[in-house]
TrEMBL record:
Entry annotated with the keyword Signal: yes
Pfam family, one: SBP_bac_3
Keywords, in A-Z order: Membrane, Signal, Transmembrane, Transmembrane helix
Boundaries of every Solute-binding protein family 3/N-terminal domain copy: 41-261
Protein name as annotated: Transporter substrate-binding domain-containing protein
Annotated source species: Streptococcus dentapri
């Protein structure tokens, strides 16, 4: 009888211990899920096809300079990021329709855009240039009279080219891939974009292209918001960007994605 009583007591204790640790596990799991679900989210629009700023790597993961910068800034202020990808000319539509909170996709700050949108402090500075076939007679951006130059639909390169030389024949394409193919196939004389981007693409794809001497224009790149909205978020992001600039994170990311070039913004 004593043995049976002892076995009963041990069984009760064992069950109690299992129940306790089971409860703790469930509680900890619940707390983790709650903490995760309580984390605020920044909804971000980006292209996802614009190497090296916003693209998918070999495993299908969204990455790139602009993607990494907004992720790092969000992490600084305790936010998660949720990305929506679309063509470049569709980015601002997602923003104005409030389907996303911000756009992070190599957006240049321009006077025209300032009429409709607000911007973070800049996180990069791009010098715009033109890429052509290596055997092209064009050597410098000063040689572009009457040349046919490709630009992406909705991009600021269209206006940059017009302002630089109004004799340039601008042909628009849906994305960079199509524009670069047009150059390689001889459909246009060249393609305009930031020289840091062009350099990285040529290296990554081993393209038989060259960047012409000289710059067309220089512009600052920033995260974009609907005008007059998300003021508190903008303030937090600006603080985070300042810290990321100061500790060298943005410069490091720039060198990683732009073939060793530091395009981080410097006042």
């Amino acid at each position: 009888m004593k043995n049976k009583s002892l076995i009963s007591i041990i069984a009760v204790v064992f069950i109690a211990v299992i129940a306790y640790f089971g409860y703790q596990t469930l509680t900890n799991s619940s707390n983790k899920q709650s903490a995760s679900s309580d984390k605020k989210v920044i909804k971000v629009a980006t292209t996802g096809v614009s190497f090296p700023g916003s693209y998918k790597d070999n495993s299908g993961e969204l990455t790139g300079f602009d993607v990494a910068v907004i992720k790092a800034a969000a992490d600084k202020i305790g936010y998660k990021t949720e990305f929506t990808t679309t063509s470049f000319d569709g980015l601002f539509g997602l923003l104005t329709s409030h389907k996303v909170d911000v756009v992070a996709s190599a957006i240049a700050i321009t006077d025209d855009r300032k009429q409709t949108y607000d911007f973070s402090t800049p996180y990069a500075t791009f010098q715009y240039g033109v890429v052509t076939k290596k055997d092209s007679d064009l050597q410098s951006v000063d040689d572009l009279n009457d040349a046919s130059i490709a630009a992406t639909v909705g991009s600021n390169q269209i206006k940059v080219l017009q302002n630089f030389n109004d004799s340039i024949n601008i042909k628009t394409y849906d994305d960079r891939e199509a524009a670069l193919s047009a150059v390689s196939n001889g459909q246009v004389d060249g393609y305009s974009n930031a020289k840091t981007i062009l350099s990285a693409i040529i290296k990554q794809k081993h393209l038989d292209l060259k960047i012409l001497d000289g710059d067309i224009e220089e512009e600052n790149i920033a995260i974009t918001y609907n005008k007059g909205e998300n003021k508190e978020l903008r303030k937090k992001i600006n603080k985070a960007l300042a810290e990321l600039e100061k500790d060298g994170t943005i410069a490091k990311l720039s060198k990683k994605f732009f073939s060793g070039i530091d395009a981080s913004y410097k006042e």
